[in-house]
Amino acid sequence: MIERGHHDMGGLPAGKVDRAGHDYEQWERRIDALAVLLWGLKGTRQIITVDEHRKNVEALPPGAYDSMSYYERWVASTVQCLIQRGVITTEELARKMIEVGSREQG
Amino acid sequence: MSDQGEYRPLTYFQLMEVSLRELLVEKGIVTDAQVDAEVEDMRRRGPERGAKVVARAWTDGAFKKRLLENGTRACEELGLEVPALKLVVVENTPGVHNVIVCTLCSCYPRMLLGLPPDWYKSRNYRSRMVREPRAVLAEFGLRIPDGVKIRVHDSTADMRYFVLPMRPAGTEGWSEERLATLVGRDSMIGVAVPKGPSD
Amino acid sequence: MSKAKYKVGERVRVMKAYPLGHVRTPYYIRGCVGEVERVCGAFPNPEELAQMRDGLPARPLYRVRFLQKDVWPDYRGSPGDVVEVEIFQHWLDPA
After folding, report:
1. Is A29 an 8 Å CB contact of chain C?
2. What is the value of pTM for the model shown?
3. Domain of B152: which CATH number?
4. What CATH number does residue A88 fall under?
5. Cβ distance A9 to B106 under 8 Å?
């Protein structure tokens, strides 16, 4: 039901807490670092707010929110924030993803 | 190329992360050096920072009082910055046990504890800790007697929380450095208590 | 910056509303009655910051303490157990 955000889960029934963790991969650390820089928290110019970031994470469809990993959600949200602000365009991102993708395969 | 030893093709989101970063560097919004520096900075921040604060509070009553009144300012005294946000330090006593959660996302005192563990950000922890703290704590191996009150802190806005655990018995005369070794990350979140002198 | 309307110890009720948008007042606490544990200060409104607006003027933020037995009808812990939540003034009415 839309009146309760999918992220707004306090008090919902859930299972046992799995205490196993994972070592953060470098790409995860990089998106964390990038976001913190863009939020202006480390003396850098603030480009987007952490509030916009949260809003865009919350806007992910429930299935995506649940199946994406934590930092995959951060990548998606950061991209949406920057597109909304006009810092990057969808076209620029598309072309760059093609370029990086073919570099990887080449 | 991914960062593991053997080659694995980039996933969709890994591809997007690389692409995003390259675009932003091209546009002069960030530099690779800035990103690398921030990654290294976060690698260096671990729970030992928080443990220092706890050990100081255990040995210096005036510092502890300042810490409970204004967590941010007290941490700055130790050279630890808690930028932008305000740190609220909550104290465990024989009658009260504190535990922290962010039901809405994953707010966490990163500057004192490093990156949060996966379980703190998990659906199960975020859903259940506000509703059945005793059951969840028991799953972590921590049984809180009925006579002890539990305060669950849900970080919903600009404050960040940090639990000041109780000093274990049998540690009289210990140095701050030695005391800090007893204080693990989970005791500063509230899902554990510090090790004892003989643990 | 708006002046804080509520004082420490005052009883407040969380608005029982379910608006869309970015909201930092959790669903589980809406409509509940608690007491102000502290006045945190004034901060820009996150509901507006999320929409790329400046969230000004800053509004008072409170930590409100709720007895768990008042929040969950089937709560099975100690009667003194509490949950403490940060809530902006515009979500609070006198109780």
Report:
1. no
2. 0.95
3. 3.90.330.10
4. 1.10.472.20
5. no
